[in-house]
Amino acid sequence: MSSNAPYTSDAAADDATAAGRLAEEIETLGHKLQAARESIAHVIFGQQSVVDQTLITLLCGGHALLIGVPGLAKTRLVETLGTVFGLEDRRVQCTPDLMPADILGSEVLEEDEQGRRTFRFIPGPVFSQLLMADEINRASPRTQSALLQAMQERRVTVAGHPHDLPRPFHVLATQNPLEQEGTYPLPEAQLDRFLLEIDVGYPDIDAERQMLLATTGAEDAKPNRVLDTEELMAAQRLVRRVPVGESVVEAILSLVRQGRPESSSIPEVGEQVAWGPGPRASQALMLGARARAVMDGRLAPSVDDVLALAHPVLRHRMALTFAARAEGATLDDVIARLCAPLQ
Questions:
Q1: CA-to-CA distance for 53 and 291, rounded, in angstroms?
Q2: Could you tell me the residue range of the domain that residue 211 belongs to?
Q3: What pTM value is reported for the model?
Q4: Which of 238, 271, 288 is the last residue of a domain?
Q5: pLDDT, tens digit, for every residue of 78-118?
Q6: Best exposed site among 107, 109, 196, 241 by fewest CB in 10 Å?
């Protein structure tokens, strides 16, 4: 017994040192993220929840789908994030005639002075660190699927040759919820690749007043760089090291599994939900809860973090039956019912 005591105390001391170092890293990152939020707030007005959810997406290393009518600063948000995090950002306006090569790139045949012909690969806009796919549902299914491998594998294949994408790589896609003529709804497999579906609403009157004064003057406010790409990737690794309590894990499992009609004990789910969230929803909630805690400088996530992210994580991973839609049911109502036992 006595021979094991020194080892036990040394192990405990090492654990305490590691925990202290982790707490210090989380606190430091929390301060930097607060500075990032303040820098973004100089340019984006009245969209704090949208900004926070987008930052959570970047901290998790994921992609986001922004749903909102035109004119709500979605494009400006992407440009601002590129500046604040030192990311190379590009924008693609999706249209029905947009081809996969317009996004991925293509190989062109070149001839040198000696008459030798070779193919040279010209990268497309997907070879950036922050890609905005504007009105993604206006692109054809063939072009939408071209983004699928890029989003999931961080690489693309052109003419049989694989090409790795820059790191980090994030897609922020937008959709207009009002105008649906001539659009191609994203398939479930591609929707599941988006970590969050972010609802971009109208700003309140105070934020809109501030926006009017700030954006119609002689000069526009400019955001400051707060982190670089290496620091962002280090932050993404740190998020995955944040410990998660058993109560949070159980809350995530309960929330996701209760959303599946075949295994739910909630009557409304069995009656109204056509298909429920898969395991990626659990992974998104776990990572998102960790990132949300880090943004607030907390050392571990809580059930409140899970509840705060339930709607953006589950909204695009569930579907209502035709009868439920005819009766006026909404996914937000169903998700609120799922969250009720955890509140």
A1: 10
A2: 31-217+226-238
A3: 0.88
A4: 238
A5: 889 999 999 988 999 988 888 988 888 887 877 777 777 77
A6: 109
